[in-house]
Amino acid sequence: MNFRRFLAFGMALVLPVAGWAAERGPVTNLPMPRFVSMKANEGNVRRGPSLTHRIDWVFKHEDMPLQITAEFGHWRRVRDSDGQGGWMHYSLLSGVRTVVVQEPRVKLRMKPSGAAATRAYADRGVVARLGDCKVKWCELRVDGVKGWVEKTSVWGVAAAEIRE
Predict the structure, then answer these.
(1) CA distances to 10, 134, 140, 151 from 111, in Å
(2) Cβ–Cβ contacts within 10 Å for residue 69, how many?
């Protein structure tokens, strides 16, 4: 998957998640599940929560969005947009929010409306910083370009999540 292919133009703020998860992690007391991103440009994904467990995957994309689904000590069980995952050490993860474009060619609009002018296009696989999110729209930033996309066209944000 190409995580950096982007066709021109916008930018957004990254703010805390507004209460969309009902459960809390036993280690961090943060909402579960929750979205994070990869801090490193490479991270081993293990079968279990320790260095003695076998490496099943190696994620190789800094800023790639991941969903944390469990916690155990310094380990977090994560999954990517394809549902692949396992256990990663927490030091490889960041609270900075990113999303990955899931549709073939998404319009980044000037405003959160299907009638708004198109500022740029993002192809499937583009990773973008997540800004504000309304009920159906999220503001994204990629390489200095920002624009609004329909929430359903990206992975890394919950359907009911509102960010301001």
Answers:
(1) 11, 11, 11, 13
(2) 14
pTM equals: 0.83
pLDDT (tens digit per residue) in 37-68: 999 999 999 999 999 999 999 999 999 999 99
CATH 2.30.30.40 fits 23-96, yes or no: yes
pLDDT band with cut points at 50, 70 and 90 for residue 69 = very high
Q: What pLDDT, on a 0 to 100 scale, did the predictor assign at position 45? A: 97
Nearest-angstrom CA–CA distance, 33 and 45:
18
Question: Class assignment of domain 6-14+99-155?
Answer: mainly beta
Judged by DSSP in three states, 151 sits in helix
